[in-house]
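Lab notebook page, bench 4
Experiment: in silico fold of construct C2
Operator: M.H.
Input chain length: 202 residues
Purpose: comparison with the prior construct
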Amino acid sequence: MKRLKILLYICITLIFAAGCSKSTLSFTDGEIEIINKYPQQKMRVLLYNDKSDSLILRQQTKEFSSADLQSDIFKNLKTQMLLTVQDTANAGVGIAAPQVGISRRLIAVQRFDKPDEPFEFYANVYIVYCSDDKRTGSEGCLSIPGRRGNVERSETVIVKYIDTETLKPQTDTVSGFTAVIFQHEVDHLDGILYIDKLQPDA
């Protein structure tokens, strides 16, 4: 009888622990399915002119939990997003999670302002300051292939985000072309595409 009680206690504890562990992850079943569909390979890029894709691209994204950021699911997502944006057949300088069907606040940006111009990831990212000093330049988008247009952007921005390695909040001041990339990608997280901000041709 005592052994039965111990076994019952262990089972209840394991079930409770499993339930708690699962509840701390906020990934949906649909998100997990998409990420697991592309193990260690590039993902399908959503297109603005596809009706179902456009519905996802126009959504407001959600933040990750701390448990999400420490999960293998998140690590796989980062790997696959990087492979996608660096695909030699359709390379880009930045990518946002909604572009691969994941409505979360995650972007990868090529840091042209740093040595070796690495790609870096920014989770739960927001732009908290935009300078009044503006620049207008030509932009394209992986989700809008074969098209470019002029967009006015701030010359300098301050971004706040969660460092995906340390899980600590950070801020960064960015200027020039890299600041343009940040603005373009963060727009994606709010359902905005660069074509919404096109400037008249000169």
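Observations: Residues 42 and 184 are 21 Å apart (CA to CA). Helices lie at 2-24, 29-37, 51-57, 66-69, 72-85, 176-189.
Next step: discuss at group meeting.
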